Amino acid sequence: MLSHKKKSSKKQAPGSRRRFLLPLIFLLASFLLMILPLEGFVSSVKAVLAYVFLPQVRAAHATAKYAENVNQTVRELLDAHRENRELKQEIEMTKLLSSQAEAILDENGRLTDLLKLSRTHRWKGVWAKVAYREPSQWNAVIIDKGLKDGITERSAVISMEDGHEGLAGVVVEAAESTAKVLLVRDEDFSAAVYLERGKEEGLLTGNGPRAVRIKYIPLLTQVEKGDKVYTAATSSIFPAGILVGQVSGVREDESFQTALTVEVTPLVRSAAVRELFVITGNGGK
Known about the structure:
The protein contains 3 helices and 12 strands. The protein is α+β, with helices and mostly antiparallel strands. The strands form 2 sheets. Strands 1-2-5-4-3-12 form a 6-stranded antiparallel β-barrel. Strands 6-7-8-11-10-9 form a 6-stranded antiparallel β-barrel.
């Protein structure tokens, strides 16, 4: 038995020596890393040995690598956010330019119609642009021409709609460089007109957002939807023959049982006027 234990102890001696040898090598390597100078090849060897034998160095390296990746990701996110913001701005600018282009095309179309009218109309006058609308009187507009341009009160006003000239309103106030135009739909507007079919005359009056009306048309007058309406020669303001609009309905007058009330859809849309032609001098009445 004793001899067997002695043999066992002899067999275990080399293993225990190895267990003590590894820590010794580790301590020696650590000591060398501390005392060796940080130059050239030695510095590289120290870095490699430190990475292999010191877990803290490996952990620090991994942390630094992770931080570098996080920093890169943050930069990419910030770049993506900036590019996204720039793309949105470009899209908004494209929409704005598209809207401006459509407005310019629309204005070019209107000006083309106005040029046609300038060449063919039989009245003297001036073109004016709508400067703004009266908030308290929506069917009235302020134009950018006035007394210095020959515009006076009671001047007749026409405009273009779908390539045709039509009655737009009348000047009710005139200043030095601006004027107020009462449009056909305003309830204070009135004009002597006649029906194209039978030449019967009546009094056209504005009716706000509803169809304008012609009063005092004889009861037995033959009138149908679509018949055209023109200004009459008996008008004290408007030249004869200006197209007002088309008949949209006929009913018996509530006040005068011997007359008809004819409803008319004006050719010139009061809500859409942009440019107006004001008849001046002897062109009007």
